[in-house]
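Reproducibility note. Readers wishing to regenerate the assembly model reported in the main text can use the exact inputs given here. Chain order matters: entities are listed in the order in which they were concatenated for prediction.
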Amino acid sequence: MQQDTRNFSIIAHIDHGKSTLADRLIHYCGGLSDREMEQQVLDSMDLERERGITIKAQTAALQYKARDGQVYNLNLIDTPGHVDFSYEVSRSLAACEGALLVVDASQGVEAQTVANCYTALDQDVEVVPVLNKIDLPAADPDNARAEIEDVIGVDASNAILCSAKTGLGIEEVLEAIVQRVPAPRGNDDAALKALIIDSWFDNYVGVVMLVRVVDGALRPKDKIRFMSSGAQYLCEQVGVFTPKSVSRDVLAAGSVGFVIAGIKEIDAAKVGDTITLVNRPAAEPLPGFKEIKPQVFAGLYPVESSEYDQLRDSLEKLRLNDASLQFEPEVSQALGFGFRCGFLGLLHMDIVQERLEREFDMDLITTAPTVVYEVVLNDGEVIHVENPAKLPEPGKYQDIREPIITATIFLPQDYVGPVITLCNQKRGVQVDMRYHGRQVQLIYDLPMNEVVMDFFDKLKSVSRGYASLDYEFKEYRSADLVKLDMMVGGEKVDALSVIVHRASAQYRGRELASKLRGLIPRQMFDVAVQAAIGSHIIARETIKALRKNVLAKCYGGDITRKKKLLEKQKEGKKRMKQVGNVEIPQEAFLAVLRVEDGK
Amino acid sequence: MSTRRIIPLTPASPPAAPHPPPTATPHPPAPPPLAVYVHYPWCVRKCPYCDFNSHTARAAAPPEAAYLDALEADLQAALPQVWGRRVHSVFLGGGTPSLLSAAGLDRLLTLLRTLLPLDPLAEITLEANPGTVEAARFRDYRAAGVNRLSLGIQSFNDRFLAAIGRIHGGDEARAAVDLALATFDRVNIDLMYALPGQDMAHALVDLRTAIASGAGHLSCYHLTLEPNTPFAHEPPALPDDEVAADMQDAIEAELAAAGFTHYETSAFARTAQQCRHNLNYWTFGDYLGIGPGAHGKLSSHQGIVREMRHKHPEHYLAAAARGDFVHLRHTVGAADLPFEFMMNALRLCDGVPAALFTARTGLPLAAIGEALATARSAGLLDADPATLRPTARGQRFLNDLLQRFLPDS
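Running the prediction on these inputs yields the following structure tokens for the assembly.
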């Protein structure tokens, strides 16, 4: 049985054609009829389709009749395609024996691909290089092959040439999966060990888990236990996705499928956890399980304060399917009631924001993203601070440590100069630089707070979009960090406080103050906009008072238009947030918080 | 002169009626003073900043006889609404009503006197533009009963007159003012400031020319770009807000020094020269509006009604032939009355007595208690509870003050 099974995933950079290839494979194996064949089946969320990324791992069990005449069960396990989801990727890969390394033959290797490929190689996953888009005139298979060998170090001489778009080479890909990906070697008779690859919430059946059975077998009515928490549930249903869900009597060793066990909270089914049987538990869980912790925090506030409850409901609904999203209520003087939310990374934050706005129709103000700092108090206690407003006053702590990441950047050599300059500006320390043909691989240690601020956007702009980035957490390191507060009319605007390096505080303070001056409308009185570190003012701008706001003429004529004008002014004020006696429009917060988008 | 002006409060108010239940349509306990506005819709040329209901006559001359016939029928039809009420002022506005022949004007005023109890001392104002002024005609206007002339001078400087599309020049403007003052006891000069290319010195030259002329009333308007005007579509380069505000400060100071009282946002008058007709608007009095696009506001025990005549002259004339004059009519509800009252009353620099609110709207002062309290604590409204008077800041930021009286949307 296991001899006929192949578990594989696809590693590819965004836009290199992973989803198109997956769809081709499903179609070829008859998983869906033409009529059912919606474009890019595996990326089921609109957002994913638009951004070309996969957020949740999904799967398809395919029946492929190979050239040797035998029918194989091929389990395609889709992997998330972004740097924020590297843990999920590692769990998906842990469930596979093989991976297709899909590289755009016209573009070559990207950082993301490399990182995921290394993850695969670390877990002894067989990597099968596939050169996609060979139908394009710009395709250069030889160069791409050389790059794979040079950068990743896998033999690419027998890389498969295909075009997912035209269908060319699809059969060769399937043959390679059968011949080159090892069959699973689980022990049917051993105690059950099933790896949770992904879990999500279904309105009708509760939490659905996608699992890879490593050893043993899992059947409905089995009593199961989660090895990280010890929680026990009754297995209600097992099955596979073709990609439609189909019930089965058993998930045997080596197979991939879904489990439903009447679980209501997605927290209970953590990605990477091991499921075993209560009657006959495994001695040890599968390796690699980690509790995932948010790395990036930001405050989310409804533009209309009356929509606070709606925001909470929406976040709760999102969380049903996204265990990595954390949130707790937060009150800002300037923005009112909202939530402090924790995300895996910036992309994760963007996705949550966009889903809230698109699917739940929320208007949001999001504060500047911040990382988690370790603050050593005077008495030696270490606290974690994920909100600048919560940083103790200077003098009450002896040290702040900031998270440092190791960033791997791939880019064409033409852009090396500006990218190095950028990394240096962001307090980066170069670890390595290597040339691979036309590509350069830069490795930098960077403070994560500099990265979440605006690094992605700047990297994209200085490299004209050609640079790709992957990062992993390295360590906490002491740094000379200060809290920069913004004050309007003498009142601190808590939502605008940021933690920055002392060396850049002056610059940031001036920049923020001048930006705010341009965004806050003139009031009936002069308004001072100041940037301060503690009680020390480091920048100041003045918004000159408006001289008047009055209509020149009003006689017995038509008052409706005058009334409308004033109603519009009043409506505008309603959407403003009151800080002290200064009215600040939402747009000012949005524009300031959208740090340096325009640049 | 006392700065406290006499407000024509309704005499001998009946004993305070119980406050109307919230569902009843509010109306004043007794009808307020009544004025009549007559709109003359034609101009020689339409100015690019003007958003009034004015039209360039298509034919060689506007159809005067047909217009006067229509006005007569309009007034006849409206009489039941104002039956028996004395008329305290008449205002002929436009457009350019000084395009009307003296005989035509005489016919109109005779008509008003015949059909309405026109107070013998009523203020009768005619708007005139300098480009349309003739000495003989002015004398005839006066003979017909006009006792106040309002001149649309705007500037005495050819350059700025051309910039705002006026048909007259500086010399004509000066001649018109002299002629007006030689003919009428009471003359208003409309001036505009913050004109395209104008600086402080220019603005003050215009102002001093107007003061020196001897006119008893000045209206000084900040040029405003109104929507749906050529200036709104292609805005000219205007002095910036700081310069314009400085001009306003200087204008107010010069006029005060010259003995003018600043009594409304844009209006300045020597002793006893205030415009009674406009004061009636600002004290939320009643007015009957006849002629194309004219607005009226009339109180009765059934409530306070606003109405508007058919707007386009041709449409008005055509509809009048069928006995149809009113394009829109609605009763102002309790939610809208406070704002409508305040929008007028707070334009007056001295405001109005607090009691006028109930006298004109029929609503208890408590209906706006909260807005009054916050406006007072914000320093926009005078703290004296016996008056509704904007502070100096309230006058400058009148829009911010008035917003507090808008109904909650």
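We highlight two features of this model. Residues 51-55 of chain A have pLDDT under 50 and may be disordered. The interface with chain B takes residues 524, 544, 546-559, 561-563, 565-567, 569-571, 573 of chain A (CB under 8 Å).
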